[in-house]
Every structure is written in C-alpha cells, then in structure tokens.
Amino acid sequence: MDKKVIFSGAQPSGKLTLGNYLGALKNWEGLQDDYDCYYCIVDLHAITVPQEPKELRKNSLEALAQYLACGLDPQKSTIFIQSHVSAHIELAWVLNSISYMGELGRMTQFKEKSQKSEANLNAALFTYPVLMASDILLYQTDLVPVGEDQKQHLELARNLAQRFNNKYSDTFKVPEPYIPKVGARIMSLQEPDKKMSKSDKNENGYILLIDESDAILRKVKRSVTDSLGIVKYSDEQLGIKNLLNIYAKMSGKTIEEIEKMYEGKGYGDFKNDTAEVIIEGLRPIREKYQDLLKNKDYLEEIYVQGAQKAQKASLKTLRKVYKKVGFIPGK
User: Fold this and answer.
1) Catalytic residue from among 195, 241, 249, 271
2) Is 260 an annotated catalytic residue?
3) How many CB atoms lie within 10 A of CB 263?
4) Helix or strand or coil: residue 122?
5) Given 58, 198, 221, 324, which residue is catalytic?
6) What percent of the chain has pLDDT over 70?
C-alpha cells in the first residue's frame, strides 16, 4: 500500500526555537519512516512582512541546515524551498478564485498582524492562507502536523478542497490535522499564556536551537513560575506546566514520572534539571548545524534535489486542476 502523505512547512524567519523543535521538527523526524513526507521552507510566506533580501537568503539556508540537524533525512523525505516550486503560486491563484473575502478576513492571524502594522497591510498578508492551502493540497496530503494556532488555516484548506471537488469533481484529498498530544504548543518562558516565538521582544522568553549552554541555563532559571512551590501539571501553574511539557518531550519521560521525581523539592532543582535536559538534548543538533553551514555545496545539492522531486509530484495535481477549470494544456 502507498504511504499516507504528510506536508509541513516553516518560515525562514530567523533562528528556530525550542518551540519549533518540540512542536514540529522533533515530530517530523519520527514520521519519515511511516509516511511520504514533504517538508518545506516557506520563503514565499515570509515576504508578507518586510524582509531584507540578504537576510532572507541567509535565514532560508540556516533553516535548511537546522531541518537536517534535527534529523530530517533527504533520502526519506522531500525537503525543499517553496519558491523553487512554481506550482505553489499557480495553484494558489486558482484557489483564490474560490476563496471568499469574508472567510479570509476572519483569519485570526490576519486580524492580529493587521492591527500591529497597518502601514504594511498588503494583499499577500490577506491571502497567504490560500497559498498555505495550495502548499498542502498540491501533494494530495493526508495529514498536516499543526499546532492549535494553525488549525484555522488547515480548516480553510479543507474547505477549499471540498469546494473545488464539489464544483469540478474529485480532485483533492481533504487533509486531516496531525496533532501530538503533549507539547504540541510550547509557551514563552516569560509569558506562559503565549506561544514561544522568536519575535518575542524579551529574549528570555524563548530558547533557540543553537543557543549555547549558559544561555539556556540562564533563560530557564529566569522563567516565570509562581509562589506555590509544587511541581504539578496544572492550568493554575502555567509556567510549571510549560516546563513540564518541555522536560517530558526532551527526556521521553511522562509528566507523571517527572512530577514524582520532584515531590517535596523546590523549583530550583526542577529548573536546573530542566535546563540540563534541554542542553544535552540540543547539543548534537547545534554541533551538526554548525558543520552543515560549513558545507554550502551539500546544502545546495539537498534543496535542488528536493525541488525536483516536489516539482514532479506537484505538477500531477496542477495539471488536473488546470484541465478541470478549463485551461488549454500547453506543450
């Protein structure tokens, strides 16, 4: 039987965080043997906000190196840069024609970003969920690893697939979410009611995959907790809950096992040990990443081969779509 298809992508918006790793990349590695995986660096999405061209190129290459350092295997998965596969934009244009202004205007991330920066309220920021749907639907995707904050975008992809299928006959698979049970959403160390993000103005709120050991220890020690002094997984203790999620995902232990380990102990011991688990877990990633960045020719080989594989797969879907909407086939 053919393997089910998984698609996922991440923006090259600077260095990847521990949240990116535990919420996405760590899960991606484990999926490669059981699924036909497409992992994409979505540089087209990145330009919905102002970018310095030189920095965007640098960030894209660093994101690829971090993907590989986190265990993605180009022999098992298709790893590519979004702008190298033109079918993403071509399908997005067709899907735009069946997308409604109202449903795009209701997108939470658009509303939040538009309130922050009215000066850069561009059309791409408004329509990028349609491009995201195109990313997913091109590969006849069965499953999309998503955090809670991306569920709305996946729902749009599902709606557009069903809408197109109803209008033109079955063309797209309707994708389902793949959501890990624990640690799917890692929160800020300083504001544990908000998602961990590199865009956080307080650098103590996030841990980068390539942070040095002393930086990781310092950030974990400074993480916001509470005055209860009990290591317990509770919505009343969001800071401790977040650290427990991180500890569990990095160590492979269950939440219950970790809670028992710290019965009668204070937050100091728990924070030190959590930092140590993170440091040792990220050490091989950081070392491999640094080695990969020294070999630009190898990275180029990976993204060129990945784009070729992705282009071949995506054109199968795009040709069907073009035929069904009435375009005359080109030679």
Assistant:
1) 195
2) no
3) 9
4) coil
5) 198
6) 94
